[in-house]
Amino acid sequence: PPDVELLGRSSWTLLHSITATYPVAPSPTQQSDAKTFMSLFGKLYPCWVCAEDFQDFMARNRVRTESRQAFGEWMCEAHNEVNRKLGKREFDCSRWEERWRTGWRD
Ligand code: FAD
Fold first, then answer.
1. What are the phi and psi torsion angles at 80 (to 5°)?
2. CB of 12 closer than 6 A to ligand 1?
3. Rounded to the nearest whole angstrom, what is the distance from the C-alpha of residue 24 to the centroid of ligand 1?
4. Which residues contact 78 (CB under 8 A, 6 or more apart)?
5. Coil/strand/helix, residue 16
6. Closest Cα to atom 6 of ligand 1
7. Which ranges of 22-103 would DSSP assign to H, the alpha helix?
8. ipTM given for this complex
9. Nearest residue CA, atom 42 of ligand 1?
C-alpha cells in the first residue's frame, strides 16, 4: 500500500538525516541516546511487519554509534537489508554521506 511507501521514504529521510548530523565524536550519553532511539523506533514503527523484521535485523546487527561514520554506515546497511528484501537495488554505502549530508558532486 502507498502509505507504507510514503511512511518508509519519510522515515529513511529522518533516520539518515539523524546520522548525518550525529556527532563525529559522540559522548557516551549521545551514543546511548542513539541506541535507545533506534530500539524504541524499532518497537514503535507503525508498519508492524516492517518493525518486526527491523527489530530482528537489529538483534543480528548491533547498532554502531561510536562515530558519525559508523552510525551512517550502519543505517545504510540496515536500509540495504530492506532494499534486498523488497528486490530494490542496493545502495553503495561508501556514498551515504554524499547522499545525506554533503550533497552529490556530479
Ligand atoms: P526508499 O527505500 O524509501 O529510499 C529513499 C531514498 O534513500 C532513495 O531514493 C535513495 O536515494 C536513498 N537510499 C536508498 N537506499 C539507501 C541506503 N541503503 N542508504 C542510504 N540511502 C539510501 N517496506 C515494505 O514494503 N516492507 C518492509 O518490510 C519495510 N520495512 C521497512 C523498515 C524500515 C525501518 C523502514 C524505514 C522502511 C521500511 N519499508 C518497508 C519501506 C521501504 O524501505 C521504502 O521506504 C519504500 O518501499 C519506498 O521506497 P523508495 O524506492 O521510494 O525509496
1. -65, -35
2. yes
3. 25
4. 54, 57, 58, 61
5. helix
6. 9
7. 28-44, 48-60, 68-85, 96-97
8. 0.99
9. 8
Distance of CA 45 from the midpoint of ligand 1 (Å): 13
71, 22 contact by CB (below 8 A): yes
Say which amino acid occupies 20: A
Q: Give the start-to-end residue ranges of the domains of the chain.
A: 2-102
CA of 5 to the centre of ligand 1 (A): 8
Given a cut of 60, whether residue 106 has pLDDT beyond it is no
User: Cα–Cα distances in Å, from 4 out to 12, 18, 19, 39?
Assistant: 12, 21, 22, 20
pLDDT at 104: 67
The set of cell numbers assigned to 9 is 521514504
* CATH classification code of 2-102: 1.20.120.310
pLDDT band at 105 (very low <50, low <70, confident <90, very high): low
34 lines ligand 1 (CB under 6 A): no
Q: Write the CA distances from 40 to 14, 54, 57, 103, integer angstroms.
A: 15, 11, 14, 29
